[in-house]
Design brief:
mainly alpha
C-alpha cells in the first residue's frame, strides 16, 4: 500500500470514528461535516484507483 493509500485510509478511519461520536453526541453539524469529508476522501480514492476498506462497525 502506497503513502497516498495509507493516508486516505487513515483519514477515512478517523472521519468514521468522529462521525460515530458526533451521532452519539447528537452533533448534527459535525456529523454533516464528517459525511462530506468521507464522500470527498472516497472520491479521491476512486480517482486514483485506490480501494478503501469498509468502515468498522465496532
Amino acid at each position: 500500500m502506497g503513502e497516498l493509500s495509507r493516508t486516505i485510509q487513515q483519514r477515512l478511519d478517523d472521519a468514521y470514528e468522529s462521525l460515530r461520536h458526533a451521532h452519539a453526541d447528537g452533533d448534527i453539524h459535525l456529523a454533516d461535516i464528517r459525511q462530506e469529508e468521507i464522500k470527498e476522501l472516497r472520491r479521491i480514492a476512486a480517482n486514483h484507483d485506490i480501494g478503501v476498506e469498509a468502515p468498522r462497525c465496532d
